[in-house]
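Renewal narrative, Specific Aim 1. Our central claim is that a sequence can be written position by position from structural information alone. The example that follows is taken directly from our test logs and has not been curated for this report. It begins with the structure tokens describing the chain, in the order in which they were read.
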């Protein structure tokens, strides 16, 4: 997933955040030059710090923190919040998270399939496609995930049957 943004100040450089939905790896580019992530301050520190050079020679500290319910991280520039992308609406989260119901129907298998399908749905909802197409794709992914859950559960049942 690629997110283009600028700081909320004049003469901000063009920034691009590259994030892998599956691995969580994050890269930041300023005017097409990669900015190296600063080392973590502690073992439990989940924030990622980037020092971004500005055109006037100063630097800005960009801190990114993962949010468990969204693919877009929470961002702060020198301690002030920055919206990287518009928030999804409640109904968009509801549609994207339908596969999480599989956790209750399919236990461990359903939970695993549900999480993967939910991540795919959130990525689809963040795309620039028309609303009807995004909803349709999410529903198709949910139905396909349900079929995969049933297939995997059946295979496990056959493998464990006497």
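The sequence written for that structure reads:
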């Amino acid at each position: 997933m690629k997110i283009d943004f600028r700081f909320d100040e004049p003469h901000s450089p063009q920034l691009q955040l590259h994030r892998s939905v599956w691995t969580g790896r994050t890269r930041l580019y300023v005017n097409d030059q990669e900015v190296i992530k600063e080392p973590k301050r502690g073992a439990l520190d989940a924030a990622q710090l980037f020092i971004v050079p500005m055109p006037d020679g100063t630097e800005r500290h960009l801190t990114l923190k993962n949010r468990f319910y969204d693919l877009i991280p929470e961002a702060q520039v020198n301690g002030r919040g920055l919206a990287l992308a518009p928030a999804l609406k409640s109904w968009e989260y509801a549609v994207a998270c339908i596969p999480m119901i599989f956790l209750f129907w399919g236990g461990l298998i359903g939970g695993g399939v549900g999480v993967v399908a939910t991540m795919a749905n959130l990525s689809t909802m963040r795309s620039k496609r028309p609303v009807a197409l995004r909803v349709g794709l999410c529903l198709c992914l949910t139905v396909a995930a349900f079929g995969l859950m049933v297939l995997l559960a059946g295979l496990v049942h056959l493998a464990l049957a006497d």
